[in-house]
Write a structure and sequence with these properties.
With 337 residues, this protein is an alpha+beta fold. It has 3 domains: 67 residues, no CATH class; 190 residues, Glucose Permease (Domain IIA); 43 residues, LysM domain (Membrane-bound Lytic Murein Transglycosylase D, Chain A), CATH 3.10.350.10. It is 21% helix and 27% strand. It has 6 helices and 21 strands. Strands 7, 9, 10, 11, 13, 15 and 16 form a 7-stranded antiparallel β-sheet that branches. A hairpin with a 4-residue loop joins strand 17 and strand 18. The radius of gyration is 25 Å and the shape is elongated. 27% of the residues are buried.
């Protein structure tokens, strides 16, 4: 990729990363860089939450800056580094459906294990099985499926050694029965990072990975998101419906349903984009309404104006693109808020 094209993309990402989502909403998901490809450099963009990672093989990709993203409320509200369900949301308070970006141009994806599952989501021996089991020999690296922050990395009851990752869209992924943990609570990881090693700890009949996907503490069949036979992610933009939380609602899709599902996803995508645009316009109007201006009069100084509007000289300079030495012109309007 040329330097000019990279510069253009960086400018777009810095200005409004959400605007990239629509263009890439239906494209395939890039494979993350797994261990073995060394980093060459990290570049800043116009957006403090976004970085560009350059690799030694001359490839690159966008990543979110975990130190910045971790301050967002999705990673602070209902945060608990012990409980598997810190939300305590009553079933009747769950939305009938919620549309979630699973990955966009700033996120990547890594299949937990491209294989035939050994146990499905649903009821097993009369008990609810919250995820699916994937064959996983002891000592095999366990990779983070999506970018996210480690909420739990500890021995947790029947799960044995468990890693729980929370992702920016509100989803959580669980990785149970690990033999060894490679991360700790609070760490930020990218898709493809090694977070643990496969094993058979806790309530387990043999080496395997217990993998769950949850929203607001409620588990749903991971196969709604991932085709484990091919390793492919089924959706970039996913509509999670309340009925999916039912243990009897396992992923079953007939060929005739493909077109219906695709049409529904497209409608949800358009609806989500429309809502995002409306919210952006509303925020812009609110910001403009909050702006205040002042017309300079004889005898005014920046310090007097700053004191009058309970702001600072540095803020006035920043809002108006001037310095403390700029000569004030009588009759000129300047922004004070």
């Amino acid at each position: 990729m040329s330097g000019l094209m990279l510069a253009v993309l960086l400018t777009v990402a810095g200005a409004n990363p959400d605007s990239l989502r629509a263009a890439y909403g239906k494209e395939s998901v890039p494979t993350p860089k797994l261990p073995g490809t060394s980093l060459a450099d990290t570049l800043d963009t116009g957006n403090p939450e976004v970085k560009v990672i350059l690799y030694s093989d001359h490839t690159w990709r966008y990543v979110r800056d975990g130190k910045k993203i971790s301050k967002n409320k999705v990673f602070t509200e209902d945060w608990n580094e012990v409980s598997t369900n810190p939300y305590r949301v009553a079933p009747e308070h769950l939305p009938d459906k919620v549309t979630l970006w699973i990955v966009d141009t700033l996120d990547s994806y890594c299949c937990p294990n491209k294989t035939q599952h050994s146990s499905l989501f649903g009821y097993r021996h009369g008990r609810r099985h919250q995820g699916i089991d994937l064959p996983y020999p002891t000592g095999t690296p366990v990779y983070a499926t999506f970018d996210g922050k480690v909420r739990i990395a500890d021995w947790t009851g029947g799960y044995g050694n468990l890693v729980v990752l929370r992702h920016a869209n509100g989803l959580e992924t669980f990785y149970g029965h690990c033999s060894e943990l490679k991360v700790k609570a609070g760490d930020w990881v990218h898709a493809g990072d090694v977070i643990a090693l496969g094993g058979s700890t806790g309530r387990s009949s043999g080496p395997h990975l217990h993998f769950e996907t949850r929203y607001k503490g409620y588990a749903f069949d991971p196969m709604w998101l991932i085709d484990f036979k091919t390793g492919e992610l089924r959706h970039r933009l996913f509509t999670l419906r309340k009925r999916y939380f039912d243990a009897n609602s396992r992923y079953v899709q007939e060929e005739d349903d493909e077109e219906v599902i695709a049409e529904g996803d497209e409608k949800d995508r358009i609806e989500a984009e429309k809502k995002a645009k409306e919210e952006a316009i509303a925020r812009q109007k609110a910001a403009e309404a909050a702006m205040q201006y002042y017309v300079i009069k004889s005898g005014d100084t920046l310090s007097k104006i700053a004191a009058k509007y309970r702001t600072s000289v540095s803020t006035l300079c920043r809002l108006n693109g001037m310095t403390v030495n700029t000569k004030l012109q009588i009759g000129k309007r300047i922004r004070v808020k």
